[in-house]
Amino acid sequence: MAIYRHVHVEFWKDPKVLEELTPEDKLFFIYLLTNPNTTQIGVYKITKKQIAFELGFSIESVNALMDRFINNYGLIKYNNDTREICLKNWGKYNLNKLGKPMLDCVRSELKNVDDKSLLEFIKPSISKDEIVSLFDEAIYLDKANDKDNHKYNDRYTLSTQKKKEKENKKENKNKNIGEKSNGSDIKTTREFKHTVLYEKEDEYIYKKPSEEQLRYAREL
Asked: Cα separation of 85 and 38, whole Å?
């Protein structure tokens, strides 16, 4: 799409801009509306370092401005993990036209958004139903994919847990049969009613029953 952005003259008549924003705030806001990273849909990636460099501000000043615009003014949202920013009223001035080129551009840019929850923030400012539908579709598909990923992770976790339980069960079974001794080559490991189990060099051998044990067995 076009390499320019619209700033409506009503911007300067907005009560919030007139009464609440400082000169520094106004510069910051205009920058967010017109910088080279902006997209047609109003969600784009930008780092705080880039903002600081291009405006000539310190990182501390940018952090303070971000905090004011997010928590005090409620005009933007920023995802620190994906480095994506979105502007609340973007759709009012930039998504008010239709046509195939516009819809294709919106559809393409929506696919590149990592944090789809940011779209919910912009959607109320969009007046065109066709564009709202594209936003809804992107949000719905993201939630569906997230749900499928959760199901996959749950299945993977359950499978891993069952495998571990099976291995633990096998290990415990082996421990019941015998255990090695570092102090002797031969060690009695478990006594049965009529015989005694020994272990030697990883092989199990059995002691021959005594005559008394044999007599006891015959009498049973």
From this structure: 9
